[in-house]
Amino acid sequence: MERKPTLTLMVGLPGAGKTTRAKELERETGAIRFTPDEWHLFLFGDDFHDPREHALHDQRHDRVEQLMWGLGKRLLAQGVSVILDYGFWAREQREEKFQEARALGADFQICYVHAPLEELCRRLDARARAGQKDVFQTITREDMEQWAALFHPPDEAELAGRYEGERDSGMEREENGGRREFHE
User: Fold this and answer.
1) How far apart are CA 108 and CA 13, in angstroms?
2) Coil, strand or helix: which one is 133?
3) Phi/psi of residue 85, each to 5°?
4) Mean pLDDT of 61-87
């Protein structure tokens, strides 16, 4: 029996380890991974903390994500599994992708990568001290605190693949290799 493709959403705050885990899943499963920060840096450089570029940064980032999702949908329709490494801070974003994956005939899973705020800030400080040139180099503690307040972690129903109006989808997901992950 041919296995259905899976859409995996990487969920969590910056610095939690989403991209590291997404790369592991990519190697383990052969899925195609889409990490917007990598594309954004390659195309536009780090325009995140330039106040004059804030609106432009957001427009660019949204367009990169739209491009990635367009390619992701085509891959899923062709039977190829996809990993979206976007963060997905809101339940509504995750539910929208769940519905779209179902419409494409794909399985769906959330990989939630969590670390406490203090650990996130420690990791960001360590990256800055190491001189890593990536999107994290200019993120401040204040940014992290604001983002943590905006973030809505997935609940148990979401992690089991159940959204309102979906009956027994969680059981189906567990049978099809549904994944619930927490890292601290």
Assistant:
1) 20
2) coil
3) -100, 65
4) 96
